[in-house]
Amino acid sequence: MNKSLLGALLATSALAFGPAALAQAPAALPSQPSSGLMALSLSQAVHFAVQNKSSLQATRLAEQTAAARVGEIKAQGLPQLNVGANVADNFKLQKSLVDFGALAGPVLKGTTLTQADINKAQGGNPITLAPTYGDPVSVPPQPFAFGLQYAGNTSASFSQQIFDGSYLIGLKAAKVYTDLAKKQTQQAEIDVVEQVSKAYYSTLVARSRLALLARNVQRLDTVLYQTNQTFKAGFAEKLDVDRLRVQRNNLVVEQQKAQRLTELSVALLKFQMGLPQSQPVQLTDSLGAAVVDAGTLRRNLGAASFGTGGGATGLSSLPAAPTSAGQGTTGPPTPGINNGQPSQANAVFNYNNRIEFSTLQTQQALAGLDLRNRQAGAYPRLALTAAYGFSGSAKTASDLFAFRGPTSTNSAGQLNQNWFGFGNVGLALNIPVFDGFRRRYQVQQARIAQQTIEKGFETLRQSIDLQDAQSRATLVNALDVLDNQKANLDLAADVARVTRIKFNAGVGSNLEVITAETSLREAQTNYYSAIYDVLVAKVDRDKATGELYTQAK
User: What is the three-class DSSP state of 474?
Assistant: First the structure.
């Protein structure tokens, strides 16, 4: 492989960090959407997106392009055979000056016969004639045209590379380049898995919240009906009924907004999957099944629960009394305090789990091969060459295409061949001697590029460490918020229940019911928002640790 092709490989590899599609999904899906309702679990949605999203298909086309380029590189080491032919009309033949005087020699003056020579010849005896020459004639060089007006040539040439250091290195780089293309495809697949997972979770939360709002409207309608009947009986004021109607109107508007947001979430999911917007879908996973096990997550993260430090057990009823400063202990820290240093923080992070790190390693291997390729430019190149063909000429075009061979004769029996064969075989050796220090500077550039990639490893490690710490902190915070919002929801639901009982018993006011219902809806909204934050934080955490792609498979 020559330097330009290896350079093209390196240029392509620098475009993106980026192997095959995901393994078989748990349930089969059609490769193309059908006209009917499509039931989708999260794993099915991810599998469909990986197989059908247009951006991933374009990435796989780039992978095929890389494979074709590798084939192009390998073809340089195979025999090269070319066949060519040409016909020319030399309507004005090129002339050259020829010194005919040098070819002619001195001028012949003649031969003198004596009587003795005549008598000897008559007697049948041989005689020797002695011609006489004059001085050479001085003639200036004359123009002379070589060849005939019409000429043709046809030949076949063959070459086989015997030794080329750059080509041998190129064969090694071809496999590395193919691996790089596969890793870039895997990087794109990881991004799609992340996007589809977040969109799926967003749709689950939106639909669950929409269903909850529908139940809230139904419950408020019941309270409104009972209050209206009480008003008609003269035991309630019209103001109580109007307050509930205002509350219901606000709740219906909120329900309508949630309906539109749910439709938007479904549209986003279809877009991330590569589905047409006209394709109806039904999500088969439930939000309860999607919610992660907070206790297991905390144990994996080495984090204490928000309230008790004993896992996802919820908040304690009341906080314990604080100890005074003078009664502090010298023992280990309180279990409920994380101190920012989980046990996993002391473990060695496996950077190879991150596709970006593996891709950079592949780029480093390509940079090393490029350096060796530049250095191999000083090696000799040896090739086997051969050629065989025919050339002909004639005064007319028709005579040129008569193709007369070595056995052809004219009417007088004279040879009149107009096409003649030729052939050769040999070795071509090219030894670089001096190129004006061009190769020296190319080697310097390759070494600097290699050092740049080595510096990039340290930057990438720091970035991965930061993402690991950030994703862990975000997930722990989201779990704490979820615990808190779950406790708030339970308290708000209990307050609303007790307030409705008091109102129905006639010992509570309508204003208390409205306030309790408002607090309950706010707690529900915060709870579902916390669920979504935990799910998204879990996806980000899996991506940061390099486990998202494995889990999707």
Answer: helix
